[in-house]
Amino acid sequence: MKIGINLYGILHNRRDTLTALNELLELGFSSVEPCVAPGVIPGMEHVFWPADWLKAHAEEIRSLGLEVFSAHLVGWNPATQREELKELAVTCGIRHFVVKSPQVLTETTLHETALAYTMLAETLETAGAEVLIHNEQDDIAAHFAGKTAYERLIDLCMGKVGAQVDAGWVLAGGEDPETLLWRMEDRVRSLHYKDFTLGTGNGVPTVLGKGELDLTACMQFARFSGIPQIVDLDVFGEDPAADLSESLQSLASRTQERQPSVSYLNTLDVVTGEIRTLRRFDRVIEAPNWLKNSREMIFNSQGHIFRYDPETGVETQIDSGECGDCNNDHVVSPDESMIAVSNSDWDKGIPSRIYVLPIGGGQPRLVTSNAPSYLHGWSPDGKEFAYCAFREIDGVRTVDVYTIPFEGGEEKRLTFEGFNDGPEYSPDGKHIWFISTRSGLMQVWRMNRDGSEQTQMTFARRNNWFGHVSPDGQKVVYLSYGPDDLEPNEHLPNMRVELRLMNTDGSDDQRLLTFFGGQGSINVNSWAADSRHIAFVSYELLHK
User: What is the CATH number of domain 4-66+73-252?
Assistant: First the structure.
């Protein structure tokens, strides 16, 4: 997950600005949000960057690997300096200019401020930039016309100005952040994370995860909305780097959180675009396989594998014996008499390994002794499996595509560069489709079955996952994430994603639909036998 950092608190005691930025990159932040002034503020130029300094160093900051997507405005006159800000947007690539509510909160000052911000927004719109209002504690606690002063101000901007919600200040102002975020859903463009231990007064600021802010609920909203997420710590302990690292870890530990949510099992006609929802499940289900020799589907849920009949709505758990923690990497044999699963045994400290068992249920047989191993492909002749494996080779952690005979035995490594995943055989068995980060972003690739002639097949500036070939060998459907939403080697749940379709030669690449999904939606091949319909899972968050 890509997370930004607001620089106000970071730079207060730092004058070596570029060194500090390097350290933030090493900690894992992907973007920085500075405070920018129109000119030099004596003694504070390292905290409030002069616009000319930012313009002079913008390319250098980008070369570090950091993006300046947004900036807080300090000391600007939105009525008279609109053109200067427009130039700053163009020169530095800034897309969000962040402002605040007036210091004196009255109906008159709210109207006057809204007019100024609306005029600024109209100017910046021509440069592809937006104006966002950042809340403080006071404009959440104060109310006008039955709403917080913050919401009232944004209402008065008549849809021209968005919101950068600081969830910590919302909490300190006496509102529930989750409730306010969803109440303002269509206007929130960015999310700040602060955390507080509440008590008397304004509360005590703390690192993320140690206070009373519901980080999970806030992150769920941000990912649903596809908006930037920014850590904003103003107060640090004796080791600021440790506080930042701990805050990042608090967010990272929540990226796989799926609750509370429900699942929808859907089919899509790739010719007409018609979507049919088969059933709503009050739990997370993942990775539908569409059985070719019957009307049934297979999916996993809560560690188990299920058969599902769309016509009757009946689901039946497959007895998988000792495999009680199956993930979403399961594949049906070519003759549909068996199923292979990836299963972990964390009670014994064993991560995912591959097993095979009768499709009607029964005792599983271990195929891969090495772990972690995540299954994705079963060759059309039934003789071998293809899978993604994490291995330690010469002291280096690698993630590559391997194959292994159906009976088990020695595994064969096929890839040697980048993060490689999702291997799947073409219907004729001549190729293995897979995904790789070796060219930067995650892209769909294809190679011969023996690993030769590895060829990139998608090139859009997106992170593309899990290329699934249609039974007739003509089309490939895959899942696509925005380039700025996550790291190339991540495929997270609860994100705005696309289903895309292309020919097997890479031509006619097109978007089929955008939906709320990600991890679990199409991890395995879900084409119907007619090469026209696919099954996929979408999700819905349950929130206040």
Answer: 3.20.20.150
